[in-house]
Amino acid sequence: MSLRGKKWLFVIVVLVLLALCVSMFKKSKGQPNIILISIDSLRADRLHCYGYERDVSPNIDAFAKDSAQFTHGYSQATWTYPSHASMLTGLFPPQHGLVSEKRRVPAELDTIMKSLKDRGYTTIGVTDGGWMGSHFEWQQHFDYFDEHKRFEDWDNKNGSNPGIFQERVDAFLEIQGQVSEPFFAFIHTYEVHDWLYNDDRNEIYVDPEYRGPLFRDPFNMCMGLIDKKIIPDTADFKYSKARYDAAIFNMDKAFGVLIDSLKSKGLYERSIIILTSDHGEAFGEKGLFGHGRKPYNVQNRIPLLVRDGKRKGVYDHPVALSDIPTTIADRVRADGKHPGRNLFDTESRPVMTDTGSGAALALGELKYIFFGDRTLAYRLDDLNEKENLLAPDIVVEKPLPEEARKELKALGYLR
Q1: What kind of fold does domain 29-343 have according to CATH?
Q2: CB 1 within 8 A of CB 149
Q3: Residue 326 is inside which H or E element, if any?
Q4: Distance (Å, rounded) from C-alpha 110 to C-alpha 131?
Q5: Do β-strands 304-307 and 351-354 pair in parallel, antiparallel, or remain unpaired?
Q6: Which of 142, 264, 287, 388 is 20 to 30 A from 309, comparing alpha carbons?
Q7: Domains of the chain: which residue ranges?
Q8: Which DSSP state fits 401?
Q9: Closest by alpha carbon to 276, among 92, 114, 67, 32?
């Protein structure tokens, strides 16, 4: 090629690149920032705004008044890895396949981060590591990624390396100060997940005189409770719930710092902010302790607050964590393969949870739970799931809808 031809080729390449930059700028101009906050293991009914009697969450409660609050939000799994994968893709666990420690997040996975990058967003991931860290390849889906390296200094004697939300908030604010808008930020913390290991013994909640097994050997005793090898007494349960409340209280303080910082920077009004959790935590209800077991409300009902500057109030229709990507994509007109529904779509649809050993389905006014050949049914407003409508001595008011039956059959839960 002649020198003249090379010059023209160079000019054409530059013009194409400029056109792409202009196109990307037009796509992202005026779009809101999006901040998705996941408080690992936070169950809905332990927040004051969801009816808890203790005032453990004043900052979240204030945020709820400025947000859309979903009463019946459900996770698609009852432990961290598959639940977050559903939250960030819109896929059900059997679809994304991230259900064991042997699986890694593939680069080609259609995450909401990928959809937003194509829309001109800078993507930020700030996590407490573990299941949400670089060991499982989450970092490849973010432009900026910061994690608490939990597995590098794991100590079986002392249990978990605790996650502190304030550290994650500080890390996000530092990164955010270096990037342009619009940005998407995913902020994840284990502070509530690690309620037994963190130094959250706030005297407002925790009995300072307790010296039972959960105080002396928290890690091994907690594992014993989860595996039902240890039978706790009333004092143990009281201590567990108090430590959980203290962890929520401390997490809530850091959440307040985050919201105040966003407001001081003028970002609060320019951002869609979503606060949620990946699953709940049991403290003896239904014979369960911890999480990752059965899809009762204590393990799969999660808080879900969406502050978009447009909609406020309480929404009572069932929604799923897997609806978050579609809701975000709809708001910013992003393309993406996210099969969930928009959270604000009130049309009845099945909301599923899969634990591997059982499944739950919320549809209309009922929630069904399936364990092999055994099926339970509860009204959605029966939050403690006390009255099984399929018990022999109770008249079944509504049979399992055909739509739900077909979906469960396709997933292998019914024959």
Answers
A1: Alkaline Phosphatase, subunit A (3.40.720)
A2: no
A3: helix 324-332
A4: 18
A5: unpaired
A6: 142
A7: 29-343
A8: P
A9: 67
